[in-house]
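To whoever is covering the structure queue this week,

Two jobs came back overnight. Logging them here so there's a record in the thread.

Job A:
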Amino acid sequence: MRHINGGPRRGTPRHCDGPVLGRAITGTAVLSTVLLLTACGTTGGESGSAQAREQALIIAENEPPATFDPLQANNSTVDEVARPAYDTLVRFEGGELVPSVALDWSVSEDGTTVEMTLRDDVVFHDGSTLTAADVVYTLDRVDRLQIGVSALLAGYESAEAVDDTHVAITLSEPRAPFLSALSRLYLLNADLVEENAGDDDGQQWLSANDAGSGPYRLTGYTPNQEAVFEVFEDYWGGIDGQAQSVVFRYLSEASTQATALRQGEVDIAMDISPQDWEAMGNEGFTIDRADTNVQLYALFDMTGKGETEQAALREAIAYSYDYEQHVESILKGAGTAAQGVLPTGMPCHSADVLQPTYDPDRAREILDEEGIGDVSLTMTYLEATAEMEQAATLLQSNLADVGIDLELQAITYPQYVEITADPESIPDLGMIYTFPAFPDPDAVLYQSFHSANIGGGMNFGGYSDAEVDELVELGQRSTDEQERCAAYAEAQEIVAEDHAALALSNPQYVTVIGEGVTGYAYDPAHHQTVDVYRITKG
């Protein structure tokens, strides 16, 4: 097969005059001012401001993205701002993998070659046409940089553009989850990124710029306040009733989000506390509760450098937590207690895996038998996350009852990633959600418990077990679903019996939606994000 670089790029996008965002916008622009500047065809004065607000979909979020580079879309805050601006080869509808830019695909008998046929009508925001060369560039850039979504695409070896609409991807070995992982590969405008590559493969430029072909284009960002997107009328999927602009507004406090919803300043909020969303259900708001593949964990430091190297201590802590109180008082019934390492809705979940229950007498007995006393631990959790804040306080209280002192430290997700990148700085416990990037057990067991992802990956607790590594790799290679599940089930049992993590809850995802918004649906393959393309406003 020969490599085709692609022909000249032609076409002019039909959108408001003015360049795509070149640098992060600074200052403290008022929301209505930003909307007036970015909405097409509005008039000045109060009527223009009102019209802009009516045509805007405003979504409250509790944490801004560290970057707009879709390479980092394994982080939900980046994934949320990548979805409007970029396309993927494939996507999930519920649990089913369906075509997107790739119309169809085939996998070779040995499982190492994936051939895809692409749409020929996908246009980037600068008017150029997306071709197979852009797919190759995007895959190769992920492989070069080895950060972000690269962990999801392990096994990638090379890709070749056969012609403009056909691409062949070669894997180093068979890898069953690879096709699913392509749902997080956001396709880049290769020429545009190369023009702005600098000395970091475009990371700095893409941190505040848009090189996509999605239904919306990034037009403004006020750091820590809001990101603004404008509809792209030439989107290949068509534009029919979608909002003219989409704004992600960053409000760190759940109570502030609730107030903004009640005052009509935002349309959708996803971080409302259970106390507030219960009340808002009687105030005319739509409360969407969806089952998820997400679990809340407290990951132990498994590097062997601190108190938690003692398996008996980890076991005692596991029996100290009041899991049912978590569901009843913290989640207000919107979820269930965890049932093992994998969430119950995930394929290959094993119902036979050990899951400790609340038994403080058993916890004290273990501590006494092993002569463990005077234990002081530190646990990090993510600030401004209502479930975590309350769960951290509950665990602190429960552990005090059995004689263990727990110091709490609220941090941001980027801070947690930074401190766990060095195994020497992993905290005794780290409370964190796992957001599986696709509905496959590999998205939890490989990402969170395989030793390859210690230090810079998502194995935040530093867990390492050679047998678990082998079982997970068997599950990756096998194309027989029964064999895969058997391997993953055995891996779950080992992780659970090691008490490598407290599996605290399997929460539902609760979204509060204001009047006039239709089409919202929770997407289990993109947790804590909104598919703005399917939403209409008015």
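Job B:
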Amino acid sequence: MPRFSIVVPSHGVAGRLSQALDSVLAQSFGDFELIPVCDAPDAPAADVVAGYAERDSRVTPVHSPPSAGLPGARNTGLKAAVGGHVLFLDGDDILVPGALAALDARLSAVGDVDVLYFEHERTPWWEGEPTNPAAPLLARTPKGAFSPDRAPQLTGVALPAWSAVYRRAFLTERDLAFPGDHFTDVGFGGLVALRAERVAALRAVVVRHLLRRQGNRLGLPGEHHAELLDQTELVLTRAAEQDLPADRLKPLFEQLFAAVLKTAAHPRRLTSERRAFFRRASALYRRHRPAGYRAPGGSVGVQHRLLASGSYAAFRTLRAAHRTASRAAALLPRPRGLRTRLRYAAALRLPLDRNLVVYCAYWGRGYACNPAAIHAKARLLAPQLRSVFLVEPEAVGSVPPGVEHAVIGSRKYWQVLARAKYLVNNANFADAVVKRPGSVHLQTQHGTPLKTMGADQATYPVVAAATGSFAKLLARVDRWDYNLTSNRHSTEMWERAFPSAHETLEYGYPRNDVYCTASADDVARVRKALGVPDGKKALLYAPTHRDYATGFETGLDLAEFCEAIGDDYVVLLRAHYFYDQGPGRGGGRIIDVTGHRSSEDVCLAADALITDYSSIMFDYANLDRPIVAYADDWDVYRETRGVYFDLMELPPGRVARTPEELAAVFRDGSYADETATSLRAAFRERFCQFDDGRAAERVVRRVLLGEPPESIPPVIALAERVPAPAATLVRS
């Protein structure tokens, strides 16, 4: 009996069938049977399959009439299968290299499971970035085999049939087959998940789904969309029959009705009988709504409530309003406003102002980061240059006296962008900004990358969705002339994440210069400004943003932590800059410094750093002070966000996984012992290569003054640098 039976329906894909079959036969793991399902012996696909069957005895074609559709073809292949596990592969998809070996290894590790879910990659037919829709669902699954009750988000209805491998005996013993004609994956996946007792996950891409230019057949207009309700009713009825627990029923209900609402709101899918579709969906919603169910927030929640009430007229009005707003937004000129657009176009025809430098940091959040450090140094080394800092209206107050600024979106904003020879940013300028011949764009970045960035985010759907168009992102990258890095790791990762023709400057981050130039008096001044009591040890707690979370949560009860470590410490809380608005979160021994303009000041004030996966650790390491990594959700973060290296293998100091472990390293002093010091030294060797206190000078001389590379001051060796002194701790 072969390990795998691979069923490949072939209707309508004869032109792409060969690559699917080749991807299977080229696998390094060879214990399988390949079952192509053809329409008839004389069908176009049958001719393709015949050649493979003659060359390889593992290819055993079967036939299913076109009238049986995709469900019939898969069911026919399933009946013919004799392997221990069954994998369904569409005829225009492929198995990635090493896929079967990975499945075999995972099945051997987890034992006899009914279903092994895995990731898949959706690849555009021509250009664009692939996505991995299964990754968020699998990111938080247990490591080994588990009961479906332990991963209620795996309802089966949100994953295609070819995103899992099934134990054949499980399918046959429970008489599980593909139902209906259309949306069969919804019904099959839901029924399988309801009947499975032991499942597992493989967090790796196994199938590459090649999107068609004409789109999915299910997305075409027609009456077949009513069958989505058939599949929804089938799954929810079975769930009710087996009295599915509430914690599993809720995600099943939400995922099914997410698809239903998407269809109901789509103007081109339901060409007729829209009202009938909505009414039937409403009846199903009310009949199967879980007890105590609360609709989600926002626009989706409004749609849920309208569906529950059967208010088709209100639902139609809501969707029409959304479509009208979307169309209106698409028609807005960029830059917005015809008058502004004309003024910008006119300014672009004027000569470049060769003494004008435009700076921006964090999309206009204020005078901060590398652009601010370069600006300050340019005022000393190149006073002949006129500098303008771009800020949002609410950030005008953060601009120091004497610094010229322009409010983003204003007339002056577009004028200086059109005329400036030099444009400096730590993020990106707006899409509408034109890269003029002769202008110089400097990308300074705003951290060393642990998490994936740029084009490397494409395979992580949670962050990819937030990033938007990668084609537009790379178009912005193409405007760069220089890209700044602070270590060789960054150089390599930026080249991967932002492929383009710009020149890399391994000069260090100018904002980090202060870590080598600040004095004890500077440290004392900052601590006093932040309210750190004399004699107290200040611990900076700086967690990063979670792309898969909504809003800011510390992940750590700071009051309990302070109580556990004793009265010698205070905590400086600095949330990610996404959350620097609103009232302070401090009180007592917790000082909220999220809104403080300078992260460099906050780092200078801190005697030690506690962070999870924030890039602040790379900057803080320049101070050679203790760092503790609080990695309570590392596995989820790594799988969902993607990382460039394993922080647990290369930490900057002690690692704590629980609040108790974190408190313990401060109570017993191990956060600053020899082991912690050794780990920090290796971390500094790798990530503090170019931050020697002269980065801003190098940038100004090379980029703004045009000095040749050979005249730029060399980087001072790490062993020769003297970091700013800590207030209460003695550096090893």
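Note for Job B: The radius of gyration is 30 Å.

Please reply-all if you pick these up so we don't duplicate work.
Q.
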